[in-house]
From TrEMBL:
SUPFAM superfamilies (UniProt xref): P-loop containing nucleoside triphosphate hydrolases
Keyword terms: Coiled coil
Gene3D superfamilies attached to this UniProt entry: P-loop containing nucleotide triphosphate hydrolases
Coiled coil feature spans: 342-383, 419-446
InterPro entries assigned: P-loop_NTPase
Domain of life where this protein originates: Bacteria
Species, as recorded: Streptomyces ferrugineus
Listed name of the protein: AAA family ATPase
Amino acid sequence: MSRDLFVKQVVINSTGGVRTLDFAHPVVCVYGPIDTGKTTLVDCIKYPLGLPVDWRQVPSERLTSVTVHLRIEGMDIALRRSTIADTGTVELISPYDGKAEELLDVTPQPDSDRRVVGEALLDLLGLSELFAPPTAVALLGNGARLTFAQLYALNYLSQDMVDGTESVRGQANTAQSYKTIVELVLGLIDAEMRVLTARRDDLGQTVSQFKRRTETISEFLTGSAAELEEELTRSRSEERDTLTALEELKGRMRAVTTFADPLRQRVAALEGTHSRAREEEKAAQAALSLAQRAIQRAQQPGTDPVLHCPSCRQALTGRVVPEGACALCLSELDPGVRDAVVQAAEAALATAQQRAIEAAKTAGEAQDALAQARAELEERTRLEIGPLAGQIEQLSAAHAGARTRTGMLERQLDPHRRLLELQRALRTAEEELRGVREDIKTRKNLLSGRQTTLAEIEEQFSAIIDGLSLPNEPGARIDHNSLLPKVRAGKLTKVGHGVRTAINVAYRMTFLSHALVTGATDLPSLLIIDSPRKNVGYGDEDQQLIARLYAHFLDHIAGARSHTPHARPHQVIIVDNDLPSLPPHLRRQMHTIELTRDNPLVP
């Protein structure tokens, strides 16, 4: 069914005050002479919707903010946007108390978590899923995303679009995006079927890729994955067992080593004692040698010969030294002193001999004790520590070998495992592909005989064109490739502005009429037309044409609604220089807003 998008009120804030305009009527006609703000009023509806507006001089200087009150799918909302500060955001405000409920971005911002106003409007219209991936991707390709601005081009005919100066598809649309949106909202294609078809194609490619990869890997594999897995299990078990036994032996080794620690400490202590005894023995021997030389000097008659004079270094070897005299001064020595010296030397010699004997004894005892302790430690090592060390070495080698085999087997199994993963992924993709194919069959059965055809829309377009009685019968029709209007001679530029305007308005009337009659479209039931009368001209035939256009338009919309039991709400807003002569019953269908030089739009 068509989507309810209805303008209820527009509030304009400017430096000259506030103006509130009532739009809560199915048909609204705003008219007045040039430069009174008619197009600005249309821009004031667009601006809070987050759409770009190129303000003219007067509104750009005076406007401060614009608020539009809308009904969207039965929900009343209001959008307010400033024209002087923070123009990149739109306030979603309560239509009841005017308080801001949410701040929306006009365009997506990389560091913002706020919603974009266009996306919020699509969500309120119930079209967010239809316009976002995967539907857009299925229709337009990777990275595609349809926008509210592209949809709004179907609801608004600017002056340039009315007279054909600008393509009727609007600046926001490319040829492809316009065609896609028309097909989507008018039901010319089934979006879900497109998504299913695109998914089926993607899955078909994925299945083919998986099959090629599995075949490639299988060609280079040797051996059985099951046999390798079994061998790997045995190798891992051996690795665990040898590691457990190795840890057990290391624990026993630590225990034995701890038990032998006192013996090692005793050996270390005895080595210290033995070293000290050897040092004492050497010292005693040195003292004994000194004592023996001292006794020899004391027992010699006289003193040791002096070879040179200590003062002049004159040789003294040729002198004869008498017995018992000094070798230097030749004076006679005292025999009592010499005897005392001999006795002292003999006593020192005896003491040194005794010390040497005791030191030798002590060193020998230390040597014996050390030899015994070392023998005990070696015996303990031979009987307990040595065998454990040998076993640890053997188990370490066995564990290293098992670990090496495990690594080798895992590398051999890696391509087998990748093959298994690919095979599982292949089965999953094949199952999903079968499910998508079943969904496509089901969808086709559901859509059988229900899908809207372009012929139905062309029939309505032709009926409207025939009712307008266009001069020279231009042969207006809808191009099947672009879904844009054209004439027998080709593009609309082949005909005059008046005929071009009538065709473009009839083209948009067809969409709205189709939405009202069938109720099977997603097109928002709002149509805004800017200055159709001005673009036609002011000759008698031109005025008759515009009168027929207005009359046929109002009659057609009224008739479409009267023949539809459950007609959806709709709204048509026409902006023009003045109104044509219309029958009273048609004038009563319109709510008019007049703008004058004394009462322009912007205060």
